[in-house]
Amino acid sequence: MALRIISADSHVNPPRDLWTSRAPAQLKDRAPRVESTPQGDVWIVDSEVKGAIGLDAMAGRKYEDFKVAGLSYKDMRPGSYDPKARLEDMDQDGVDAEVLYFGGPITQYPKDPELRRFIVRTYNDWMMELSKAAPGRLIGLGHVPLADLGEAMDELKRIAKLGLRGFHMNPFPDDIGAKPLSDPMYEPLWALIEELGLPVSFHIMGPRGMALSRLRDPTPGVKETFIALANISMTELMASLIFTGILQRHPKLQFVIVESGIGWIPYFLERMDQTFQKHRFWTKSIITEKPSTYWYRQGHATFIEDHTGVAERHRAGLENIMWSTDYPHSDTTWPRSREVLASHFEGVPEDERRLVVSENARRLYNLN
Amino acid sequence: MALRIISADSHVNPPRDLWTSRAPAQLKDRAPRVESTPQGDVWIVDSEVKGAIGLDAMAGRKYEDFKVAGLSYKDMRPGSYDPKARLEDMDQDGVDAEVLYFGGPITQYPKDPELRRFIVRTYNDWMMELSKAAPGRLIGLGHVPLADLGEAMDELKRIAKLGLRGFHMNPFPDDIGAKPLSDPMYEPLWALIEELGLPVSFHIMGPRGMALSRLRDPTPGVKETFIALANISMTELMASLIFTGILQRHPKLQFVIVESGIGWIPYFLERMDQTFQKHRFWTKSIITEKPSTYWYRQGHATFIEDHTGVAERHRAGLENIMWSTDYPHSDTTWPRSREVLASHFEGVPEDERRLVVSENARRLYNLN
After folding, report:
1. DSSP sequence for A299-318
2. Distance from CA of residue A33 to its chain's centroid?
3. Is B315 within 8 Å of A306 (Cβ atoms)?
4. Minimum-distance CB partner of A267 among B208, B263, B287
5. How far B222 CA lies from chain A's nearest CA (Å)?
6. Separation between Cα atoms, residue B86 and residue B82, nearest integer Å
7. CA-wise closest residue to B41 among B19, B72, B14, B15
8. Within 10 A of A50 (CB to CB), how many other CB atoms are there?
9. In what order do the strands lie in the sheet with A138-140?
10. CB A294 within 8 A of CB B82
11. Which of A58, A88, A185, B158 makes a 20 to 30 Å CA pair with B56?
12. Would you say A323 and A357 are in contact if contact means Cβ atoms under 8 Å apart?
């Protein structure tokens, strides 16, 4: 059987008319739309600017031509929103299947519940349409907003019914005014996730506690520091899911930290295990196994380019790590994924490479 | 020549009467003092509680007996403040020399400049006295407060004159209301540090952006998450010192990230290099070499127990990493340092071990 190359983290930028074309009359004016401005295209949701076209649409550009914003939909590879164009781009890059994450304004939902529900449902419906456009090649994941617990659980049930293979949640809902995931109030949600058997993904959202506006800070070095730090923030989520006992209480719950990189994982597992060994008495820790046990049993992480991580793959967990292209974002390997894979897996045994670039994602998302 | 084992990060807890016994009349009532309460000993500075005796005084305790607070000076090993007792503890542990960092309320200085200057100068004077009590074995480092730039520069000059071999600064002065170290206002300070030729140390201070009060949060797992995350926050400082061009402008400036651990460094160097490669054009990066170049030339990091880091020592930088005991804090290896070293350096060539446990610190601090 030929090796199928699966990208465990790729993205969409939704069609510019996705929401306006499907909005009911009473939401027509408030639905997300793309507006062309002298500063490029921007997403507008309920009169507020919610993101510009830039780093999310860099596939195929030379680094010299990268832009944080100021581009338009015309500048974007159509594979960002059109399934046929997407498959052509994947073929060119030697990628057989892609797990698809959010784009556009989907993670920045408004306070109004009616508008929010419309945005999220429309997006999740479209992700299913995409998945059906190329079964086994486009693996759309849903998005579950954490503004309201009941709403989150309802949408998660709908996602399972639609047939999506997994879903994404904000790793740090306290950043948007909700309770942090360590709060016991989320217990029914964790139980539902385990019951449905869908893996839950948490994608990086920038460095913890740093506003996205740092990407416009003129102080030399602030922008690069922001980008360099974005991935490692997932240490907080990993520690929190483990030490709160969520993974212990829900041993069948599988989770993914997405675009986290993997080279830091061996260090951090050791650090968490030491923390548990030394501090579990006075902290009255509620977990009973050492932290790394939960990771190896239930955790997954994706990476794009990470030679350190591949060298340390055994400590990170051979069945816990998955390669990805991040198409069409700025960190993408497109269209040089073959070359990137060759460089990362030189000297790695074939069965180990197969797990990381294919089998782990296939098993997790139950793909044929 | 026999191998001298040097701990590159150990701590003091200052004598309880250090400040009260030396305060001028007008500061007598406001000088830091230890008060015994039913909840254990606490440091009081200018009527405010500034820390309790607990995790900073755990050397020799069983993990089952660890306490975050509630202890008294009597419960502490006298090696925390008494040089003779300290040398006996070091002998018992097979440690020849220790680089000494802060303790007590020294990093939580008050707003009043007169009181602050008294606290800092008294502490730095005492660190020099400690150093003279056992030349070549006790290597006291100074502390430079960042509340005021002129004051910081004056104290740094005084530290150099005293003869201390290095000094510590807060890695994140914006946490205490000052400008972040990425701010160009610190340029004269960086120039002075380079001119004086003293290495500047930045010790971990808890996870970035998380209040120390999380160590008292009753939500299960929050305390352990806080502890597990404390070290990795130094990624932000490392990226900031590099991308702001501080290290490029001051190529002789040597810095240390202290108690950071080292196992994450190879991953993070690769991540910073990728950030530079892909994003330097639109960010208008002001550095000219790839980020890892500055690390290998000017950076150092200390670790306590970190098997991943020792396995990855070549990528982290053989001349950039230094072992430590962290005595008498809760992460200390005392009194089992011989055993910890044997386990970490099994199979590591003798010349490489020598760098990490001795030579790198000796070279950095100019020890005989």
Report:
1. EEEEESS-HHHHHTHHHH-T
2. 23
3. no
4. B263
5. 7
6. 6
7. B72
8. 17
9. A6-11, A97-101, A138-140
10. no
11. B158
12. yes
**pLDDT value, residue A1:** 59
Q: Which two tokens stand for residue B222?
A: 């929050």
As a whole number of angstroms, the distance between CA A148 and CA A127 comes to: 22
Say whether A330 and B243 touch across the interface (CB within 8 A): no
- Amino acid (one-letter) located at A123: Y
Asked whether the whole model's pTM tops 0.95, one would answer yes
Q: pLDDT tens for residues B170-210?
A: 999 999 899 999 999 999 999 999 999 999 999 999 999 89
Residue range B275-314, pLDDT digits in tens: 999 999 999 999 999 999 999 999 999 999 999 999 999 9
The C-alpha atoms of residue B272 and residue B167 are separated, in whole angstroms, by 27
Helix (H, G, I), strand (E, B) or coil at A6: strand
Q: Which of B247, B108, B253, B248 is nearest to B173 (CA)?
A: B108
Per-residue pLDDT tens over the stretch A255-283:
999 999 999 999 999 999 999 999 999 99
**A315 pLDDT higher than 70:** yes
User: Any idea of the CA torsion for B130, B135, B138, B142, to the nearest 10 degrees?
Assistant: 60
Question: What ranges make up the beta strands (E) of B23-165?
Answer: 33-37, 40-45, 48-52, 97-101, 138-140, 142-143
CA–CA separation, A87 and A92 (whole Å): 9
Contacts of B276 in chain A (CB under 8 A): 224
Give the 3-state secondary structure of residue B34. strand
A214 secondary structure, DSSP code: G
ipTM exceeding 0.85, yes/no: yes
Is B233 in contact with B174 (CB distance < 8 Å)? no
Q: Using a CB-CB distance cutoff of 8 angstroms, which residues of chain B are in contact with residue A261?
A: 267, 271
Rounded to whole angstroms, how far apart are CA atoms A90 and A195?
A: 34
Interface test with A, best of B282, B284, B287, B331 (most A CBs within 10 A): B282
- How far is B243 from chain A, CA to nearest CA, in Å? 4
**DSSP assignments along B144-208, one per residue:** ---S-HHHHHHHHHHHHHHT-S-EE--S-GGGGTS--TTSGGGHHHHHHHHHHTPPEEEE--SST
Residues from chain A that touch B244, judged by Cβ atoms under 8 A, are: 219-222, 225
Q: Which two tokens stand for residue B297?
A: 């030339």
